[in-house]
Design a protein that fits this description.
Largest sheet of chain B: 5 strands, mixed
Strand order of the largest sheet of chain A: 3-7-1-14-11-12-13
Strand content of chain A: 15-25%
Largest interface: A-B, 59 and 31 residues
Number of helices of chain B: 2
Number of domains of chain A: 3
Helix content of chain B: 10-25%
Oligomer: heterodimer
CATH class of chain B: Alpha Beta
Radius of gyration of chain B: 12 Å
Distance between the termini of chain A: 62 Å
CATH topology of chain B: Ubiquitin-like (UB roll)
Number of strands of chain B: 7
Shape of chain B: globular
Order of helices and strands of chain B: EEHHEEEEE
Chain lengths: 757, 87
């Protein structure tokens, strides 16, 4: 595939028009999941397992079914046992659909506290809940395993006798009773460590965290009289929901229409089905539409969080600061079913440095927790926390400036990645120099117990399939419909790319998100891919529109199409430039020259621009309470080309705040029996506006030649470095080296006390 | 001749070789050529006539979408890498 020639000057891309969906969202008119209602609609509720690990001996639904107001009750027995269960999920690898189905409703065993066992549809949610509690389930309790090291022990309770391993080219199906293994390497680490003057080896642990999207999972399903199923839901991918439903219910994909409503946050956690198949089967059985709303406790107990981890790493460096060898061992929770973020987690652990000798081991580990799901750069925050705090330690031991150290070792274009292939265009050096030259880096911190920390982060991103439809209206406005749900302002960033390509104004484009029956297939809004990949689909559709309009101009002027010059929204006769149509003028002539014009493009771009960032944080630590106050925070990030700089800034700020929460507060608390104890947002403590200062975003632009305007994804990498940057600042402030997340006041006090004893 | 880079877990099968030059017009043909040199290697890369679970392929520095059918140039580099996923 050839690189694009990126225009030197862009007219629309890089500006900051108002998003078309903004007003409706801030005034409450936009329709989110819970805003949707149908006449005659029933309400569904789920009975969930109170046990972390148990075999289901029997389920008696008779009392629930007889309860007044109940219209349907379902258990796993109402769902098909899937015949062909492994599907390809693009760059996400393959998915065992029987696991997906069993995660929605337990078949033989429950694997975590909150695992769905049965569901009820009733006249209202209160009746449904009361009836669900009348369902009697007999369990045989099994020992749970709640952390990766216990799960990898020889005598660990085994979750699954067989599982699809998340391993990479492992010669055996299961490396351990509950785990599979991934290995990567380059060079010779033994030789590398022999060359090192200083070697450090450290261990780290991080806890399970949730994406914390404010809108929970909500779905309304209607089984039509003709067997056609319609779903209204809040999701990162309407086609993913459709396809997963089709596979677990053994229905044709074409029999299911998924209509995406607005989404109140996802961050990777809304890419798959949970209550959706339950709502469909309840609707089928009751003959009525069924709405299901997960409450916060259900969302925390039974949807996919991000992995807790155990990491052990070893770095070797020469006295001049050159990294010569690295070993990284990362064990990532997969949750109840295999397939956690171990591959991206360990693959990004060291990728941003050019280290000649590297050995990496990753383990995908089954534990009795919900099946994990992606969370903004999945797996990269824990591995970055480990490596970047070790880099800070090396800088201090060698008395080297932390930016200079990173510049000395920075991955640059053409350097080989640990994956083997050469790094495409990357602006890491520019990022680090921007840190060095920034007023924040050059300022004094001032005051006791204050410190500054730096961390450097990387993320791959992805391409994957996207679609876009454009239709020209007779007044010169354009309908834009994509298959990508809008999580972060992508309606306007896609409209801007269409406007740039067509030579018209963004206000002349009406962008919308299509349902699965009305627009071409698109992979989910994940992987920082929508403005990049769907943007390419929009660009390609726009080129088609321009070509078709040039044919119309040629028809009117009775010249060859090749003789029509397209210049920024104008169509000119090359032989007589006095003959000229604006886009709007020519749009008005379509009806008399052959009819309306539309175009569809489906793109699967491969020229992904990697994401690189550095975060700089100042903080103060209260040595009596252990409380950390973030005083100043600057995030430097390469956007390739910031299509809408305000939204890039928003992505950087949002991801950073989530990273701060991961660093300081957020964690799942399980008791020894595997019960989740903090099932509300009072006890699962996410940062609020009171906890963080303004995050200053410094946007750099090293264009990605794989996109016509140079775009890289921006949404994921901001969550990667905050934990390490804060840990490094804590050392600077108080001399304590943290090796566990979250860095709660209690843990900080323990470390402070250990300094004085 | 295209060059196939051998993933670390498979290097026991190639006598430690990190990269092998083999003929092939697409990724599938390269794997077939590798199999003739190093028997049993195909079973790790291909399952059910597709790239195996968790495996992606990068050709000339780009993770490609056509998998086994990706066409190659005479000087192409092929890398078998973990499928990465994202959020």
């Amino acid at each position: 595939m050839n690189d694009y020639v990126i225009p030197e000057k862009l007219r629309v891309v890089g500006t900051t028009p108002i998003r078309p969906d903004g007003h409706d969202k801030v005034t409450g008119r936009a329709k989110f999941g819970d805003d949707f209602h149908l006449p005659g609609m029933l309400h569904g509720k789920v009975l969930r397992s109170p046990h972390a690990h148990a075999r289901i001996k029997s389920i008696d639904t008779s009392h629930a079914a007889a309860f007044p107001g109940v219209h349907a009750v379902v258990t796993a027995a109402d769902f098909p046992k899937i015949a062909s269960n492994v599907i390809d999920a693009g760059e996400s690898g393959q998915i065992d659909m029987q696991d997906v189905a069993d995660n929605c409703i337990a078949r033989e065993k429950v694997f975590y506290d909150g695992h769905a066992v049965a569901a009820v549809a009733a006249d209202n949610a209160h009746i449904a809940e009361e009836a669900a509690n009348l369902i009697q389930v007999a369990y045989e309790l099994l020992d749970p395993v709640m952390d990766v090291r216990s799960a990898m022990a020889d005598n660990a309770p085994v979750l699954h006798d067989n599982f699809l391993p998340g391993a990479f080219l492992a010669p055996t199906e299961k490396a351990l009773p509950n785990a599979s293994k991934l290995e990567l390497a380059m060079g010779d680490v033994s030789t590398g460590f022999d060359q090192a003057d200083v070697i450090i080896e450290r261990e780290f642990t991080t806890e399970t965290v949730h994406q914390g999207y404010i809108e929970t999972h909500i779905v309304t399903a209607q089984w039509g009289a003709n067997g056609m199923v319609t779903i209204w839901t809040t999701t990162q991918g309407q086609f993913a929901i459709r396809d997963q439903l089709a596979l677990v219910l053994e229905l044709p994909m074409s029999a299911i229409t998924v209509i995406p409503l607005e989404i109140g946050g996802g961050f990777g956690g809304k890419d798959s089905i949970y209550i959706d198949p339950l709502a469909v089967v309840l609707s089928k059985q009751s003959g009525r539409p069924v709405k299901m709303v997960m409450n916060r406790a259900e969302t925390l107990r039974a949807t996919g969080p991000s992995s807790g981890t155990y990491i052990k790493a070893r770095l070797g460096v020469k006295t001049d600061g050159t990294l010569v060898a690295a070993e990284f061992h990362g064990a990532y929770e997969a949750g109840a079913y295999s397939g956690g973020p171990v591959a991206p987690g360990v693959s990004t652990a060291l990728t941003r440095y050019n280290i000649p000798n590297v050995k990496i081991e990753g383990y995908d580990v089954l534990v009795n927790k919900p099946k994990v799901k992606p969370y903004r750069a999945p797996g990269a925050t824990p591995s970055n926390f480990a490596v970047e705090t070790m880099i800070d330690e090396l800088c201090r031991e060698l008395k080297l400036d932390p930016v200079e150290f990173r510049l000395r070792n920075a991955l640059t274009t053409g350097d080989r990645l640990v994956l083997g292939f050469p790094c495409p265009e990357i602006g890491g050096v520019e990022i680090l120099k921007a840190v060095q030259n920034h007023a924040h880096y050059q300022s004094d911190i001032g005051g006791p117990h204050r410190g500054r920390g730096l961390a450097y982060g990387f993320w791959f991103g992805a391409g994957l399939p996207s679609s876009a439809d454009l239709m020209v209206n007779s007044d010169g406005t354009v309908q834009l419909c994509s298959g990508s749900p809008d999580m972060s302002g992508t309606r306007i960033t896609l409209a801007m790319q269409a406007a740039e390509a067509l030579g018209i104004e963004p206000s002349d484009i009406f962008p919308s998100v299509g349902d699965t029956a009305s627009v071409g297939y698109s992979f989910q809004t994940v992987a920082s891919r929508t403005t990049f990949a769907t943007g390419i689909a929009v660009y390609q559709a726009a080129q088609d529109i321009l070509a078709q309009m040039a044919e119309r101009a040629a028809l009117i002027w009775q010249i060859a199409t090749d003789n029509v010059l397209i210049d920024c929204g104008r169509f000119l006769n090359k032989a007589n430039i006095q003959q000229c149509f604006t886009f709007k003028e020519l749009a008005g002539k379509l009806d008399g020259t052959g009819g309306p014009i539309a175009a569809r493009a489906l793109a699967s771009p491969e020229g992904v621009g990697f994401q690189i960032t550095a975060h700089l944080v100042d903080l103060a630590v209260d040595t009596e309470t252990g409380k950390v106050d973030i005083l100043r925070y600057t995030a430097f990030q390469d956007a390739g080309k910031a299509v809408h700089p305000d939204f890039v800034e928003g992505q950087i700020q949002g991801g950073t705040v989530q990273g701060i929460g991961w660093a300081l507060n957020e964690e799942y608390f399980y008791d020894e029996a595997g019960h989740l104890k903090n099932t509300s947002l009072l006890d699962y403590r996410m940062p609020t506006i009171l906890d963080v200062p303004n995050i200053e975003a410094v946007i750099l632009e090293t264009p990605n030649p794989g996109h016509p305007y140079g775009v890289r994804g921006v949404g994921e990498v901001p969550i990667v470095p905050p934990a390490a940057a804060i840990a490094n600042a804590l050392y600077d402030a108080a001399g304590i080296r943290m090796n566990t997340l979250p860095m709660t006041p209690a843990k900080i006090l323990d470390k402070l006390n250990s300094l004085t004893h | 001749m295209p060059i196939a880079w051998i993933p670390h877990p498979m290097r026991d099968m190639t006598g430690g070789a990190e990269k092998v030059a083999v003929n092939g017009a697409n990724v599938r043909e390269v794997i077939q050529a590798l199999e003739s040199l190093y028997p049993n290697l195909t079973g790790l890369l291909i399952k059910n006539d597709q790239l195996g679970k968790g495996i992606a392929v990068a050709v000339d520095g780009r993770i490609v979408r056509r998998g086994l059918y990706e066409p190659l140039q005479s000087d192409s580099e092929i890398h078998f890498i973990p499928a990465l996923g994202a959020g």
